[in-house]
Design brief:
Elements lengths: L9 E7 L6 E3 L5 E3 L10 E10 L4 E11 L14 E6 L7 E4 L16 E4 L8 E3 L5 E4 L11 E9 L9 E11 L7 E2 L3 E7 L7 E5 L1 E2 L10 E4 L7 E5 L5 E5 L10 E9 L15 E9 L6 E2 L3 E7 L8 E2 L2 E2 L8 E5 L6 E3 L5 E4 L10 E10 L5 E11 L7 E3 L19 E3 L44 E11 L7 E10 L6 H27 L2
Parallel strand pairs: 6-12, 14-21, 23-30
Antiparallel strand pairs: 1-4, 2-3, 4-5, 7-10, 8-11, 9-10, 11-12, 13-16, 15-19, 17-20, 18-19, 20-21, 22-25, 24-28, 26-29, 27-28, 29-30, 31-32, 33-34
GO molecular function: beta-catenin binding; cadherin binding; calcium ion binding; lipid binding; protein phosphatase binding
Keywords: Calcium, Cell adhesion, Cell junction, Cell membrane, Cleavage on pair of basic residues, Glycoprotein, Membrane, Metal-binding, Repeat, Signal, Transmembrane, Transmembrane helix
GO biological process, one term: calcium-dependent cell-cell adhesion via plasma membrane cell adhesion molecules
């Protein structure tokens, strides 16, 4: 400490940070440090100084000054942790993997705190490099192959003094995992796959598995299978949980038709890169399938049989049902009918059907039963449905339907007093002829040959259906206060039986109804006059 004042005897006093503890001052004004300083702990001290004469009188007022602690390279770089990174195989040159960072407590504005990064090389040449300033590790090759080496461990060195040999150093490890890419073909583990399958194997179920080997991880195992010939109609291949090929059945097998299938299967993948194993992968394999014989039930020639039989006749040959043994053994088939009360019998070896008794269509028009076919002597059995339709013959007498008929004593000759109708249980349309069982002088029957109304100008013709009246009638309702009058409501249920023009229908009904009511009025009047 110096002063511009000339004083023979003087003394100094300091105050502030570290005064009289870390820092001491003598009578000459020399400032001393009583212990070592650490810049990283405190890099500057703020002090003030005053000067006195021999009488302890103030000569110089307090003046401020700062003690700067200059840095020396007394700290080594520090990495906070070890590092783990990853990069996909086949990545391009310059792809960033990870960034490492070390710290140095020395002054960063000096070389003491400036760090440089480098990789400590072993004997092997590393496919990675590090930026000396930023600490970014990147790939310096495009040939990373996970299948050859899936992990690299790098040793990174950080050195202060800008990397000069005199600088302090520190190291850390960086583990780099190589992630998988789809760069290998799936390969068959065998050249020939021998499989056996029973002929009754269910459709869309697995026959066997075509195992594959793929050097890639399973998420990048993406095989595409192709069956190269027409057997693709019989079989297809689906991926298993392990992404192997499950051979599936598409169409039913028949040992008797074909017992051996041989075909070639191809496997391929849509790769992102040229395959590492393109010259060694087994991408085709032969599949040999042996169909095993299974004892099968008899097979009928039709899914259902229908035959026609005339009623009231004994028929020895209605027709035949046929079944065969589909197996090569071709066993004899025995036929039987399960229903003991069935009126139809069957020959046990020919399958020929015959009537056990005469059939009556009016009692039962259709007979349905099952025929069993069983391999001899007591093998597998099958069943088929048989329909027997009974055909009609004219074997029933007409039945006369007669309503009550009333006649008035004053009815004139040729007055119609009633209509006779007949029915027939037979299936065929019947035409009836009516006549009196004995001669009668008071009554006669006009025979029109049918139960329907006939007219000379409209005779029955083949191929035409005549009309028919269902029950019809009148409802008479008395009119209150007018005893001589009655409301009459008529209802008709007429089936014209054919496709008649509307003009014919409209012209028929008004005239017929007018004629009906005219005759009704006359009848009422005649009754009233009695």
């Amino acid at each position: 400490l110096k002063s511009s004042q000339r004083v023979d005897v003087k003394s100094f006093k300091i105050e502030g940070e570290g005064a009289n503890t870390i820092f001491q001052v003598d009578n000459k004004g020399d400032l001393f440090v009583s212990r070592s300083l650490d810049r990283e702990e405190k890099n500057a001290y703020h002090l003030t100084a005053t000067m006195f004469d021999g009488n302890n009188q103030l000569i110089e007022d307090s003046g401020e000054f700062v003690v700067q602690v200059t840095d020396i390279n007394d700290n080594t770089p520090v990495f906070p942790k070890t590092y783990n990174g990853s990069i996909m195989e086949r990545s391009t040159i310059g792809t960033k993997v990870i960034e490492v960072r070390a710290t140095d407590a020395d002054d960063p504005t000096t070389a003491n705190g400036e760090l440089k990064y480098s990789l400590i090389q072993d004997r092997a040449i590393s496919p990675f490099e590090i930026h000396s300033t930023t600490g970014v590790i990147s790939c310096k090759t495009n040939t990373l192959d996970r299948e050859s080496q899936s992990r690299f461990v790098l040793v990174v060195k950080a050195q202060d003094m800008r990397g000069m040999a005199s600088g302090s150093t520190s190291t850390t490890s960086v583990t780099i995992s190589i992630t998988d890419a789809n760069d290998n073909y799936a390969s068959f583990t065998r050249k020939i796959y021998e499989l056996q399958v029973p002929e009754d194997h269910k459709l869309n179920e697995k026959i066997g598995t075509l195992e594959l080997e793929d050097r890639d991880e399973i998420q990048n195992k993406e095989p595409i299978f192709t069956i190269l010939n027409e057997n693709s109609k019989m079989f297809n291949i689906e991926l298993s949980p392990n992404k192997d090929g499950n051979l599936m059945l598409k169409q039913a097998l028949d040992y008797e038709t074909k017992s051996i299938y041989t075909f070639t299967v191809q496997v391929r993948e849509n790769l992102l890169f040229p395959a590492d194993n393109k010259n060694s992968a087994a991408t085709t394999a032969q599949v040999n399938i042996k169909v095993l014989d299974v004892d099968e039930a008899p097979l009928f020639s039709q899914p259902i049989y229908t035959f026609n039989v005339m009623e009231e006749r004994t028929v020895n040959n209605i027709g035949s049902v046929k079944a065969r043994d589909p197996d090569r053994a071709n066993k004899t088939i025995r036929y039987s009918i399960l229903d003991k009360d069935c009126p139809i019998g069957i020959h046990p070896f020919t399958g020929q059907l015959s009537t056990q008794r005469t059939l009556d269509r009016e009692l039962e028009a259709t007979h349905m039963f099952q025929v069993k076919a069983q391999e001899e002597p007591s093998g597998l059995e099958s069943f088929v449905k048989v329909n027997i339709i009974v055909q009609d013959v004219n074997d029933n007498k007409p039945e006369l339907n007669v309503d009550d008929i009333f006649v008035c004593e004053n009815d004139r000759t040729n007055t119609v007093i009633g209509t006779l109708r007949a029915t027939d249980k037979d299936d065929q349309p019947a035409s009836f002829t009516f006549s009196l069982a004995s001669d009668n002088s008071n009554f006669s029957i006009r025979d029109y040959g049918t139960t329907n109304v006939s007219h000379p100008s409209c005779p029955p013709q083949s191929g035409y259906v005549r009309g028919f009246n269902h029950p019809c009638g009148c409802i008479c309702v008395p009119i209150s206060g007018e005893p001589n009058k009655t409301q009459v409501f008529s209802f008709f249920q007429t089936d014209l039986g054919g496709f008649l023009p509307r003009s014919v229908v409209d012209s028929f009904f008004p005239s017929s109804m007018a004629e009906f009511y005219s005759n009704l009025a006359k009848a009422v009047k005649s009754l009233k006059d009695l």
